[in-house]
Each structure stands twice: as structure tokens, then as C-alpha cells.
Amino acid sequence: MISDGAGYHSWHAASYFRHGALGHEAYDRLPVRTLMTTYPLSTATEPTGDLTPQVSYDPAQAWSTAPVEGSFEGSVTGLTYSKLFAGYDYVRQNYVDSAAAGTALSAGIKTYNNAINWTADDKPARMLGEVAKSAGKAVGVVTSVQISHATPASFLAHNRSRNDYAGIGQEIVEAGIGDIVLGAGHPMFDRDGAYRTPTEENFRYVGGPDVWMKLISGQTDYHLLDDRADFEALAAGRLELTKDRVLGLARVDSTLQFQRSGEGMGGLIASVPNLEMMTKGALAYLATKPEGFFLMVEGGAVDWAAHANNTARLIEEQIDFNRAVEAVMAWIEANGGFEQTLLIVTTDHGNGLAYGPQSDEFAFQPVVNRGQGALPDLRWHYDTHTNELVPVWSGGPGSALIAEAATGRDDGTALVGWGDVARYHDNTDLARVMAVAMGVSI
Q1: Binding residue per annotation — 38?
Q2: Residue 307 annotated in ligand binding
Q3: What domains are there in the chain, each with its CATH number?
Q4: Full DSSP string of 388-403
Q5: Sorting pLDDT into bands at 50, 70 and 90, what band is 342?
Q6: Residue 413: its pLDDT value, please?
Q7: What cofactor does this chain's UniProt record say it requires (predicted)?
Q8: Residue 348 marked ligand-binding
């Protein structure tokens, strides 16, 4: 389960708003807690042929409080950010994108930014969707953004460029690695869930107009659903399927909720299922598969909210993800428990570099809790990805291997409230552990 772009602040801010305190989310009950690096092989955006690592993570530099002069303009918000401290500046550089980060989690390799299961020497990489298939398991992917976006694509496809949405969408449908794929990217509806007359570009997330026509005319291996009532029926286990596989597109263009008009919470699109409902639907379907399954669930729009420095919708999206975690844990506990199922809850990278309201004066000041139902106080220092460590919670078969892989140590995390978790491992370790849990190797 991947809350895309969720830095330290995302987890804390959502918990403060929802519960008024930390320690009350479902993932807090998981027994193994570690931290994880996220950096790519290089910040190149195409294959270079060079497999030598160009990027790393240094805790001493990441938490340096040495003052730094100057400012810069954000690439997404257009806001001006002060440089302030050397640690802030360090983690704002050499960051991973969601494609290389997703590839690390799925294929277990470091690669260049932009790559979807593609190596720096220009070859496709074997990834967890294929590994699960080789182990006889079904594969599911659920996301709150377009199904061909970087993170879901990393578990379903291969491509030299994450921006080839049509090529990725076509592979998702035609290669059929995913037995069930649920998310956004519907060509016939806009960001507010209103019907529109689509342009050719609107079909790119589902593989182009020809692939869409095959989907709606029943010429693929997928049962296509898009009505909220059908998502509800799927979650309840009572949807009659016409095909062995399921592809569900919520009636919305880009994200389930984040991209709707307005900026704050409230006014949700009623015709769109939430991540919890889609996750329950995937579990109900996958539970019928006798050899077990691999499922990736992404809260993809947490990242979008961090890019926009939109605190209210960041919290909204993170809570949507946290409720999906609750659904998964309830399913595990009702179906053999953690003796039979490995669960990993994490993110692919940080985003936005948010700390407390006075973090322009006091380096790394934690987010300030204002109580349940109140937006916590924080200050944004960036509008894109970071090279920070990120948290990982896990439980079940293989989780002990994650703890064993955490051979690095970063005591600086105590500055932002993670003092009891200092050990870290690499993001590629998770792919290896998941493969081992399935009885195969990546």
C-alpha cells in the first residue's frame, strides 16, 4: 500500500486532524517499523547505458542546520521558497520521480527517473506483477489516479517513459498482467465527474480510442465497470461478471477527488467511489483466487496535493488512503490473519518538505497539532519530491526480513517525531521481500 508522495508531515497531519493525536491509525498496529531510502540510480530521464549509481542519501547532510542564503521559485506552485538550512537544500536535490520509485518497489532495481520497469541500459525489467503470475497468484492494482500513471503502471507494464500513457494503457489492457485494475482516467468524464465529449487525448490513459472501443464492446479479457453502484456491488461480492478479469474506471478524468473544482475539503463528487470501496472490491474479487494474490493499493493524489501545497486536500487524500488500510487490515484479520498475508504500508518518496509553522526559524520543527477536526499548523518549503527517508510499516510473512535489511541508521528522524525508528533500508529491498513471501525470486 503506497501513499504516493507522503513525507513525514503527511502521516502526522492526517492523524492529528482525524484523531487529535498520533498512534491511532490502523497501520500503527503493524509490528515492524522501519525507514527507507528513495533515491534513483540517476536523475537522467532516459537510458544512459551507465549502471553506476549517481545518487545516494547522507543523514548528516539531510539534517544539517547550517544556514543557507537565497531563495528559488517553485516549479509547480510558482511560489518563492527561502533556502534557509543546508538540510532543507540537500533533500530538495537529486530526488526520485514516481516512475523510478515505483520501479524500485516493483522490479527491485535502481533506474533513471521516467522509467517504468526499464533499466538504464535500455532493457525491460521483470517486476512483481510478473513474479506473482509466475507463482500462480492473481494480481490486483487499485489507485486514486489514472490507472496508467507512474505508480500503478510500475506494477502492470514496462516503458522507457512514464509519459507514454497511451502505450502503458494499451499494455495494461492487452498484456493482462492485472486480473483486476481499478482507478481513474475515464475518457468520457471531466475532473468533476461531469459527462463530456472527449478529444483523442482524453483516451490516452486507457490506451487510446481503439483500445477504449474494444473495452466497451467486450472485445478484451476485461469486464469493464464505471458506475458507482457496480463498484459497491463488487465490494459486496455480488457483481455478476461477464469476463474473468475486471477493469474499473471511476467516472472521473484524473483523480477520484483531488482535482475537483475548489481547494478545500467537502463537496466530494458523489458519483465516484472512494479508495476504501475500490480496495474492498479488489479484495472481494481476489479472495476467490485459490492460489492467493498480490495487490498494490495507491493513494496517488496525496502526491498531487503536496505538489500544490494544499494542506486541506493533502489531509483529505491521506485519510482516504488510511481508510483503505483499515479495510485491508480488517480483511486480513478475517481471512487467516498475518500468519498468511504480508502487508506493507509505505510511500514511494516524500513531497513538499513541510515542517512546523516556525520552521523558517527553527530547523525541522515538527508539524503542530491543533486537535481533532482542526488543520494542523505547518509550513511548506518545496512543491515537488524530496530525497528524504520515508516510513514503512509491515506485518506478516517476510516482515522480519524487512527489519533485517534495515542496516542503516539515521538518528535525525527524532527531530520530526520518529525518534523510536532510526534504522533504514533501501526501497529495492521491499521488492525482494515481497517476492520471497510469494515463494519466488525477483
Answers
A1: no
A2: yes
A3: 2-437 (3.40.720.10)
A4: --EEEEEESTTHHHHH
A5: very high
A6: 93
A7: Mg(2+); Zn(2+)
A8: yes
